[in-house]
Each structure stands twice: as structure tokens, then as C-alpha cells.
Design a protein that fits this description.
The structure holds two protein chains of two kinds. Chain A is of the alpha/beta class. Chain A has an eight-stranded mixed β-sheet. In chain A, helix 1 crosses helix 2. The longest helix of chain A is centred in the C-terminal third of the chain and has 17 residues. Chain A is globular. Chain A starts with a strand and ends with a helix. Chain B is an alpha/beta fold. In chain B, strand 5 and strand 6 form a beta hairpin. In chain B, helix 6 crosses helix 9. Chain B is globular. Chain B starts with a strand and ends with a strand. In chain B, about 60% of the residues are buried. Classes of the chains: A alpha/beta, B alpha/beta. Chains A and B meet through strand 4, strand 5 and strand 6 of A and helix 4, helix 5 and strand 5 of B.
């Protein structure tokens, strides 16, 4: 579809969405061209960072209103060919649509080429956005409120009743859900649209079993049609936080911890099996790259919306498009039907998460599936020492630690209760332990000493006094 | 308004810092004008401040102030590839509405000091971010789509484009400031060069280079008068235009400049035209009124725009073979015309021109400046 914003009075056209004509103040309507022909083609043979696969073709498309648009494709066309989007033939197909300047139209298109969501006006719906911590929309940590707003508009147009919709989420363990929903802008969108926001952490939950793993799932999720609305992000631990990971927060806190302890790659598909009627529509307009939301990740302008009835397939396509390492639950991409855009025409590498990296180049991490609290602690401490060179340290976090993770690793420092306990039970002896519950200045002092001093330095009484003085001073001078 | 002095660096892959390129071009302009920096009342500069060159230097105006120890109004105006023409237009207007007697304009760019992929990506940022950048519509591809429409509509061929490249390379061969000075390029090489974005080949594309160019505009009568100066900005993307083979910004800028100068296209004796891609030169012949629409190909086929033709175009070698350091280009066009008018072009000197025209374009017909210089000697 080619869209133009046209003034009803003077007929001037814009390629950008506007609300009023700046010449006659006339109202604006969308002109949507659907009868599209190829009127020009160029084959590009040189690479650029956003377009690494060559050669590729760019079609000049023209609709019935003579509006034109370029379109990248790996397929060959001839001038005069009709250009039409193909609709999905298989149930678990994935649609990938470019957002352009109109999220609402892109959501509609991505759903349409999957042959619709298939909802009736009596359906009760649970929308599950991704709100993991208190962050503004521009930080690309949580589902964008504009995205949710557009999705709600589409659903209401399909006949869904407001009173039958709830938006439900719980923030990461240790974060307040309502605070996070408020800062993310999601709460405001719920209010604006007259839909309820539910804090999943408050339950109730229902016990269900899948492949011998016992889940306690938010009851509403089992009784409603779930529309899964993640924001697509890299993840330090999983590689990707996408459609599958977003479902994990439909489980209670205890289940979530157990899912990680029992290998998240295995438990996520088990959870997905319990929710067979999930439709995922993922926000990748402004996703995240690098180390992920809790580890200094950064926004990545991707301009995409992905949708599918299979969250695993959707994650697979996202990993392929962004060239991220795929989690083990992802099946081969060649078996997935893709509509809307071609993978090779979209592909370009975003910044990958590095599993043993910390903000400090001389400090590595051995991650035993640590909880967000220890991940945050690790990031905060190491970030404060950037610029200070020293002998390489390996911070050990989390409890899912196996002996092979320590092969060839020296100068181990256990950080947090779980790692201290786990290493205490094993033969592996760290050179130091940093308790998550001690004073944060002391934690930093100890890590600094470990970095710049050979051997096994400890916090002395003098350090403790210094730490207290520093705290006091920072309080006095603000 | 008049031009007192001009200067430019060689366009190439020199490793000098950007500030030194600016210094070099300015010193030549000051020497040419027989002036000192203390005679300058205001400065207008243009650069797109390329990030990939590693200098990480923004805030050009203050850099210029430090470089020349000058406390004066310094305007910094980036306008993509039309930056040079835009600062000439600005300075010209500024001079007419102020008491600044001498205004220095400097266009500069250091483009070559990183991988070509990074540079391609950075230049791509001049295209529309959603419709063009994310669709891989790098500038050669944008111009390729225009070229294809032009070929379909008017029957131009890739051989016509090759003739433009060949002519401009022959001219650059004679220009010591050109990247391709004394570097021979044959028509066969041009026609056999690899396809970059069909139908455009490598030799249809201009050269990214480092360089700076400067000019001093003055209220005092000199040998060169700025008889016409116009600037028009049109849509960002060519696909928005009803007719992709006519660029309204060029057409409107030309009309206004001719009107200001009180002349017609037939009075132009020499032109420097923004040949960022070879088809652009042909389209520009038409938009500037040198011939009717669709007849641009005839001008190149008949050799009218060759250095020994009736109306030589791009005697400097143009962007194609002299080089295209983005914001320096528009000022370097003025340099060439001034030098031709003063009979200082050595091997590539044409018969003394009375009127010269410079067309500087930003984007794919998005911004156009037309300057008409009159030789008063």
C-alpha cells in the first residue's frame, strides 16, 4: 500500500502524516493506493552498513493515484509488473512490515497479511505488553505507548469491546509494576482508551503443568485470548528478549525464578505450549541493541513490526533479520513462512550482546543466570571503574553455575548471595566475595582493590571508615 | 556584488586536517584578492561535518574563528551538496542588506579517511530516512531511477552518459586542482566500468574527495560581478515529483538568476554544472534552458558542451573528475569560472567568456543554487 496524506480542500499531498493543511487549514485524509505497478527498477551492487547483502533491487512503485514509493527486494521484476503483497498460507507464518510513519496502518497491514486476528465482539482479550522497569519510551526498554494505542484502535475497529480488554503486565522482579507502567506511558494509554491495567504480580495464578514443569500462570491469561505485544530487544542472558521471553512474565515470581534455574531455553517453549491461542504483534519500530535493557543496551531504530501466531517463529525471524545469535528453542528459519518483506532485504547486523562482557574491559562476567538485582549490581559496579586498568577479573554471578564455565578462568570474584553460596558448595575458590547486602561504597572499594592489586585484598576497618565518610559527605553536598 | 578573490585546495585524498584545508583555500583567496584577514567583515561557511573522518569536530564557526583569530559574525550553513552555492547566495544577500564590505565564504569537507562503506552510509543520511534510507536507496540508486525514467521518456542511452563522463575526465586531465589531473581515462574504460546501480556505472558517479574552496565577495567593483544569485529548495525525494526528469528547484533558480542578470540562457558562455551523476548534467542542460526538454543528449552527442564546443560545460572536470567534496563543490565552481574569466586556466583555457553560470545541487534535485558571473573586463 502507498499512503499519502491529502488535504480535502486544496488536494495538496504529503508523504508525512499531518493533521491540518498548512495552506488552507483543510482537513487531511489518507489516500491509500492498492493497485500498484512497477515503473522503475535499479539493481544496486555496492554494500552499505544497513544494506550488506548485494546485489539487491529497488523498485519504483506507482499506485492508481500516481503516488510513488521505492521498495527494496531481492526478487527480479520487470517494468509494468503488478506488485502485490502475498498473504500467509500457513498458520504459523510471520509477517514483517515496515512502520514508515504510520504505526496504525503498519499494524493493520501486518495483521491483514496474516489473514486477520480472528476476533469476535464477545472475545475477552488480555494484551501483554513488555514493561520491565520504569523507563521512558525513548529508551526502548518497554513497549512503546503509541504502539499500544494504535493496536487498541485496530482492535476496537474489529469490534472488540473496551470492557472485554485488559492490559496486563508485571515488571521484573524488584521493580514496581505500576511505577514502570506509569513512566513507560502505557498506563496513560490504558486510561485514554478506557481499558483496565492489571498488575500480574498481584495474581490470581493457576497451577498448570507442561512437560512435567509446574507453572503458576496468571489466571486471566488462561481464560482470555492473549495478544502478546513485546518490544524486540537484545538480552545479555538470552540473546533476545522478544515474543517468548515476554510470555514468561505471565507466570508468578517463583515460577519465573524456577524457569531460569531449569534452563530458560527449555522452559519458555513449555510455557508457550500452555498458551496456544496467543497472537504476537511485536514492536520493533525502535528496538534495542547491545547488552539489553538491564545492561546498558541502546535503542536501535529498526522501523519494523513483526506479527505471528507462533512466538518462537517470530523470535526466529527477528534474530535472522538483525543477525543475532538465536536461542536454542528457535527452529530453522527455512521452515518458516515469511510475508510482507524478504529476510535478505531486511537483514543488517545490530550490536550483539556479549555474554561475558561488562562495561569494564578488564572485568568479565561468568553468568549463572543471575537475577536482575545481581545483573544491575554487576553493571553498576563495573561501570564506575571504567578507565581504571588492572589485572583481569572474572565476576561470578547467579546460581546456575557449572564447572565447565570456569575452565581456564582465574581471579574469580563471587558477586551476590547466589554465587557465593554456589561456589561455597564447590571446589572452586574465588579470590574474594562481594555480598550484595553490604554497603555499596564498600562493594566498589573492594572491587577496585581487586582490580588494581595483585593477590587477595580485603576491606579493612580503615576502608569501612572511609566508606562511611564518603557516604556522609555525599549526603551533605548532595 | 563582486568577487574579489578565489582559492581552493587540490581535490584529492590528502591527509591534512580539515582546518588546514580551510586555511589553504582561504590563504589563496586572500592572496588572490590582495587582502588580509583583517579586511574581512564577516564569514559564511558550509560543511556537513562528516563524522566518519574521525575528527569529531563540530561547531565550524568557532573553529574558523580560532583558525583565523577573527572576532566577527561567522555563519555556518550546511545544505548537503548544495552547501557551497547556498553560502554564496547567503553572503550575497547579507552583503546587500548590511554594511559588511568584504565577506569570506568557505566550503569544506574531509570525506576520505575511512572505509567507503561508512562514507556511503553517512552520505545516505542525506536521503529520506524511512522511504529511501531503509529501502537501500543510496544516492547512486536514487539517480539511477531518475536516469531510467529519463531514458524511457526521452530515448537517452548509457552511451550518452558515458560521453558526459569522458568529456569531464578529459577536462580534469588538464586541471591541476582535479583529482584526475593527468590521469587518462578512455571511453572504453568508462563503458566497461562496473555497474553500481543499474543503469549507472562506476564512471557515471562523481568522486568523493577531500577539499576546500573559498571566495571573497565585496561591495567594491572588481573584474567579476555576481549578476545573478538564486536559491530554491524543493522536495527531499524525487519520487514525490510528478515528473522525475525535471527538477523544479533548478528550473526556478535558473529563471530567477537569468532575470536578475537580464540575460537569457543563450548568453551563457561557460557553465559549471553539478554532475554528481552523469545523467544529472544532461537533465540540467534542459532545466537551465540550454536546450528543450529531452534534447540534452543532443548537446553531448554534438560536442556543444565540450571544451572546444559552443558552450563548454565543466571545464574544471566537474564533480565527476575534479571531485566532489560536498560543501566545497559550489564554491569550487565559482573558482573555475573566475579563473576562466581571468584567462588563468592554462591548458584548459577557453575563449574569454563574458557570462558564466554555476549550478550547485543538493540531494537529487532538492536544493539548487544558480550563480551567474559577469566578466567586466
Amino acid at each position: 500500500m502507498i499512503i499519502r496524506w491529502v488535504c480535502e480542500k486544496c488536494s495538496k499531498k504529503w508523504i508525512y502524516p499531518i493533521e491540518k493543511c498548512v495552506y488552507c487549514k483543510g482537513n487531511i485524509t489518507k489516500q491509500k493506493g492498492t493497485k500498484i505497478k512497477v515503473v522503475g527498477i535499479t539493481k544496486v551492487t555496492i554494500q552499505s552498513p544497513m544494506h550488506p547483502i548485494v546485489p539487491y533491487n529497488i523498485l519504483l512503485l506507482q499506485d492508481e493515484f500516481s503516488n510513488r514509493l521505492p521498495k527494496k527486494t531481492m526478487k527480479d521484476y520487470k517494468i509494468g509488473d503488478v506488485y502485490a503483497e502475498q498473504k500467509a498460507k500457513t498458520k504459523d507464518a510471520v509477517s514483517v512490515v515496515k512502520t514508515k510513519y504510520d504505526v496504525y496502518e503498519a499494524i493493520k497491514e501486518s495483521v491483514d497479511i496474516l489473514n486477520g486476528i480472528k476476533l469476535s465482539s464477545d472475545d475477552k482479550i488480555l494484551i501483554k505488553p513488555s514493561i520491565i522497569t520504569a523507563a521512558y519510551p525513548y529508551q526502548a526498554v518497554n513497549t512503546n505507548p503509541d504502539f499500544l494505542n494504535a493496536l487498541l484502535t485496530v482492535l476496537f475497529e474489529l469490534g472488540v469491546k473496551k470492557e472485554n480488554v485488559i492490559v496486563a503486565e508485571q515488571a521484573l522482579i524488584g521493580s514496581d509494576t505500576v511505577d514502570a507502567a506509569s513512566k513507560s506511558g502505557i498506563l496513560e494509554i490504558c486510561k485514554k482508551n478506557g481499558v483496565e491495567f492489571a498488575d500480574i504480580s498481584k495474581g490470581p495464578f493457576e497451577g498448570v503443568e507442561s512437560d512435567e514443569f509446574k507453572f503458576r500462570i496468571f489466571k486471566e491469561a488462561l481464560n482470555r485470548k492473549v495478544i502478546n505485544v513485546p518490544i524486540m530487544k537484545t538480552n545479555f542472558q538470552l540473546g533476545i528478549s522478544g515474543a517468548m521471553e515476554n510470555l514468561s512474565r505471565l507466570a508468578d515470581e517463583k515460577t519465573q525464578r524456577e524457569m531460569y534455574f531449569d534452563s530458560i531455553d527449555v522452559t519458555l517453549p513449555q510455557l508457550a505450549k500452555l498458551l496456544p491461542d496467543v497472537f504476537t504483534i511485536a514492536d520493533a519500530t525502535n528496538g534495542m541493541q547491545g547488552q539489553g535493557p538491564l545492561a546498558l543496551g541502546e535503542p536501535a531504530f529498526l522501523n519494523l513490526i513483526l506479527a505471528s501466531r507462533s512466538p518462537a517463529n517470530l523470535d526466529a525471524v527477528f534474530c535472522e533479520v538483525t543477525m543475532l545469535k538465536a536461542p536454542s528453542y528457535i527452529k530453522e528459519i527455512k521452515n518458516i513462512e515469511l510475508v510482507g518483506n524478504e529476510i535478505d532485504a531486511l537483514k543488517y547486523p545490530i550490536k550483539q550482546p556479549v555474554s561475558d562482557a561488562t562495561p569494564h574491559s578488564d572485568i568479565k562476567v561468568i553468568d549463572g543466570k543471575a537475577c536482575p538485582a545481581c545483573l544491575n549490581l554487576m553493571n553498576n559496579l563495573t561501570a564506575k571503574l571504567v578507565g581504571l586498568r588492572g589485572e583481569q577479573l572474572n565476576l561470578v554471578i547467579g546460581s546456575m553455575l557449572t564447572e565447565d564455565m570456569f575452565e581456564g578462568k582465574e581471579r574469580l570474584v563471587a558477586l551476590g548471595e547466589c554465587a557465593i553460596k554456589k561456589l561455597g558448595e564447590s571446589k572452586i575458590k574465588p579470590i574474594a566475595k562481594i555480598d550484595e547486602n553490604i554497603d555499596d561504597v564498600e562493594q566498589l572499594m573492594l572491587l577496585k582493590k581487586l582490580l588494581v592489586t595483585e593477590g587477595t585484598p580485603k576491606i579493612t576497618p580503615v576502608d569501612k571508615v572511609k566508606s562511611k565518610m564518603k557516604k556522609l559527605l555525599s549526603k551533605v553536598i548532595g | 556584488m563582486y568577487i574579489k578573490g578565489v582559492g581552493m585546495t587540490k581535490f584529492g585524498i590528502q591527509e591534512a586536517a580539515t582546518s588546514h584545508l580551510v586555511y589553504e583555500a582561504t590563504l589563496e583567496a586572500l592572496n588572490d584578492a590582495d587582502m588580509f584577514m583583517s579586511n574581512i567583515d564577516a564569514i559564511v561557511v558550509s560543511s556537513i561535518e562528516i563524522m566518519s573522518n574521525g575528527e569529531r569536530q563540530k561547531h565550524s564557526g568557532s573553529v574558523i574563528s580560532s583558525l583565523f583569530h577573527i572576532k566577527a559574525p561567522i555563519l555556518s550553513i550546511p545544505a548537503g551538496c548544495a552547501g557551497g552555492g547556498t553560502i554564496l547566495w547567503t553572503a550575497n544577500r547579507l552583503q546587500k542588506t548590511s554594511n559588511y564590505r568584504n565577506i569570506l565564504v568557505i566550503g569544506f569537507e574531509k570525506m576520505i579517511s575511512n572505509t567507503s562503506k561508512k562514507l556511503t552510509d553517512e552520505i545516505l543520511m542525506g536521503g529520506e530516512r524511512i522511504y529511501e534510507q531503509s529501502e537501500g536507496l543510496i544516492f547512486p540508486a536514487q539517480n539511477a531511477l531518475v536516469a531510467q525514467q529519463y531514458m524511457l521518456k526521452y530515448g537517452a542511452t548509457t552511451d550518452d552518459f558515458a560521453l558526459v563522463a569522458y568529456k569531464n575526465h578529459q577536462n580534469a586531465f588538464l586541471n591541476p586542482k582535479a583529482r584526475f589531473y593527468k590521469k587518462e581515462v578512455t571511453l572504453k574504460q568508462i563503458k566497461n566500468s562496473p555497474v553500481v546501480a543499474s543503469p549507472l556505472r562506476l564512471f557515471d558517479c562523481s568522486l568523493s574527495v577531500n577539499g576546500a574552496a573559498a571566495a571573497i565577495l565585496t561591495n567594491d567593483r572588481t573584474d567579476i560581478e555576481i549578476a545573478g544569485s538564486s536559491l530554491f529548495v524543493d522536495r527531499l525525494s524525487t519520487f514525490e515529483s510528478e515528473d522525475m526528469t525535471t527538477w523544479d528547484a533548478t528550473r526556478l533558480a535558473a529563471e530567477e538568476a537569468y532575470k536578475q542578470a537580464g540575460i537569457s540562457p543563450a548568453d551563457i558562455d561557460i557553465a559549471e554544472i553539478h554532475d554528481a551523476f552523469t545523467p544529472v548534467e544532461l537533465i540540467s542542460y534542459e532545466d537551465l534552458g540550454f536546450c528543450k526538454k529531452g534534447e540534452g543528449k543532443e548537446m553531448i552527442r554534438k560536442g556543444i558542451t565540450n571544451i572546444d564546443g559552443k558552450m563548454p560545460v565543466n571545464t574544471s572536470g566537474g564533480l565527476k573528475a575534479k571531485g566532489h567534496p560536498i560543501s566545497a563543490t559550489g564554491v569550487s565552481q565559482i573558482y573555475e569560472i573566475v579563473k576562466q574569466m581571468r584567462n588563468e586556466c592554462g591548458e584548459r583555457q577557453i575563449e574569454k567568456p563574458e557570462y558564466g553560470l554555476a549550478l550547485n545541487i543538493g540531494g537529487v534535485g532538492s536544493t539548487a543554487t544558480v550563480h551567474i558571473l559577469k566578466n567586466l573586463n
